[in-house]
Design a protein that fits this description.
The complex is a heterodimer. By secondary structure, chain A is mainly beta. Chain A contains no helices and 11 strands. The radius of gyration of chain A is 14 Å and the shape is globular. Chain B is globular, with a radius of gyration of 13 Å. The chains are: A mainly beta, B mainly beta. Chains A and B meet through strand 5 and strand 10 of A and strand 5 and strand 10 of B.
Chain lengths: 122, 107
């Protein structure tokens, strides 16, 4: 079955760039009908959608993060990545990658990684 | 952005109880509403998609209903493994948005 796993530094300094990768196993990131997402959860809080990417490279970003955000995909490595620039303490969160399934707008996040905690601190 | 508001924010219930959680959208979203369950320290799990469709492998004690702006998640008979936080999420428009969550605790 398809599994997702996030990886990346757990600690990032303020003003630097947060970089995470989500590796997809058990299936191809190029499979039609899916899109690949990042979602975060601030400590003790709810879920915030960050953005997603199709295997073809098309993206949708949350407008609140657009100016700092890049999501990319590498089909040869079967993974996709998140880069968030100029981070502050407000970016401290548990970051999840997730697979989106279904055709917009009847889509949902049906498979999630286990999450990786990123702390922004000097 | 479409705002999703859940009620209550938390509730206490006993095993075997019928539990109902409500989600209200700030504008009509058709039936483009999903429900997730999150247990402590775990990633969210999809329960219901497009308001009322049960995700594969999810017990039939879970059901969803509603359309437009008002939606409901019902657990017909609460089981010990159902104590968790539940989130609704709209897929009608960008950005995707979630409710603030409803924590179901043991009475």
């Amino acid at each position: 079955q398809v599994q997702l796993r996030e990886s990346g530094p757990g600690l990032v300094k303020p003003s630097q760039t947060l970089s995470l990768t989500c590796t997809v196993s058990g299936g191809s990131i190029s499979s039609a009908g899916y899109f690949w997402s990042w979602i975060r959860q601030h400590p003790g809080k709810g879920l915030e959608w960050i953005g997603y990417i199709y295997y073809s490279g098309g993206t949708y970003y949350n407008p609140s993060l657009t100016s700092r955000l890049t999501i990319s995909v590498d089909t040869s490595k079967n993974h996709f990545s998140l880069k968030l620039t100029s981070v502050t303490a407000a970016d401290t969160a548990l970051y999840y990658c997730a697979r989106g399934s279904g055709f917009h707008p009847a889509d949902a996040f049906d498979i999630w990684g286990q999450g990786t905690m990123v702390t922004v601190s000097s | 952005d479409i705002q999703m508001t859940q009620s209550p924010s938390s509730l206490s219930a006993s095993v075997g109880d019928r539990v109902t959680i409500t989600c209200r959208a700030s504008q009509s979203i058709g039936n483009y509403l999903n429900w997730y369950q999150q247990k402590s320290g775990k990633a969210p799990k999809l329960l219901i998609f497009t308001a009322s469709s049960l995700q594969s492998g999810v017990p039939s004690t879970f059901s969803g209903s509603g359309s437009g702006t008002d939606f409901t998640l019902t657990i017909s008979s609460l089981q010990p493994e159902d104590f968790a936080t539940y989130y609704c999420q709209q897929s009608y428009s960008m950005p995707r948005t979630f409710g603030q969550g409803t924590k179901v605790e043991l009475k």
